[in-house]
Specification:
The chain has 407 residues and is α+β, with helices and mostly antiparallel strands. The protein has helices spanning 4-10, 62-68, 70-83, 88-101, 106-125, 150-161, 172-181, 205-219, 244-263, 275-285, 337-345, 347-359, 365-397; strands spanning 33-37, 42-50, 56-61, 132-137, 142-146, 223-228, 231-236, 290-299, 304-314, 320-331.
Amino acid sequence: MRCAFVFVALLCCGQLPCAAQQPRQPANKLAADFISVKRGPKLYGAFVRRDEAGNVSLFVERAWLKKTHPRYYKEVALLERERSGGDREVLVERVKAWRESRSTDTGLRIFLDKELKRLGAAVEAGEEVSRFLIVEILADELAGAYIQQPATRQMLLAAWENKLKDPVVRTAASLRRELQSKGVMWEGRSFNFASETAASSTDSKRQWAARVGIVEYRLRKKVDFQGSGAVIKRTGDGAKDIDLTGLLSEVLKDQVNAQLAELLGGAKPKDDRKWVAEAIRVAESEGVTSFRVSRLRKDLQRKQAEVTIEFFAKLPDGKWEPIWVNTQRADATRVDPKAREEVLAAPEIQRMIALMKATGLPLDDSQLQLAIGFGAATKESLRLSQLNLVRFLETYATLLDRPELRW
């Protein structure tokens, strides 16, 4: 369900932007993400995603787009109306059937009852014009982009939530000062604007199954896995405590084998995804419709820690598919000193150091500092990945008719 036709039509509508709504500073000074469209406008908003084909989605404030690029906005609004507000009778019947199938899940049932009431009221009242819209730019129409770091983008989202004036054209420093003066906390928070976007067209069967998986992950049982290489262990609701010693042993064995293969001139080992089958087996046995896998990787050559989170949903054909993937990396040599201290002070790290000293294993300071750096970098990568996961879940599990779900 690509909206390619939207931008084929829009690119023919050249226009002069309203200078008052354009930033006066370069993109790297802003809190907003920047996308430039070939033969089209320069857009500022919050980056949503980039799919495998290279198409980019941007979250844009309607009032800003309407004032800055009025002709472009008219075309966007027209096509948005054509695509939104799908057959609500289909949606209502889907929700009723879902509620019946999960009648014993109190939290989920309460949510579905509220949605049924809201959907009925929306049909009677008619849709209001939403505050935000999601614009998708096809890969071959992308002229340029500047994507902010998540921590910087957080200031834009906080500014939107608190309705600060013209946040997309202001510098990050300016927004930071005003947010701080108002006592607004934005670091590490998630923001949800789903209720302020337009209703999407009716989900396909695949989209609906994926949305059900997202909602049930939030409101029913969470099945999570964590690991490295080919090794994963069950975490989340109802999981047993992880055997950290066993996990570490298996992970180290995988890393040593990979390093030996590289030193001996052999081909680099492929990313072994045999863990997918094991995760699916567990998810099926626990009767869930979705699960999350967090995988850790250390790039010793680049001295980077990497965390990838994949969110899987069960689709109508019975197959499981990752519908959201996010990777975050951090440099083990450039972590915050406070983060290093926290890792070093962790009881398990202190026990490991004491054990190595007691057994006479070699432990020089450079090795220790690098190990501590990897620990801190992994924690930061995991924090950012989890923040993005929360944002993804809240975006698509708050309302059942918006925004459109694509992967």
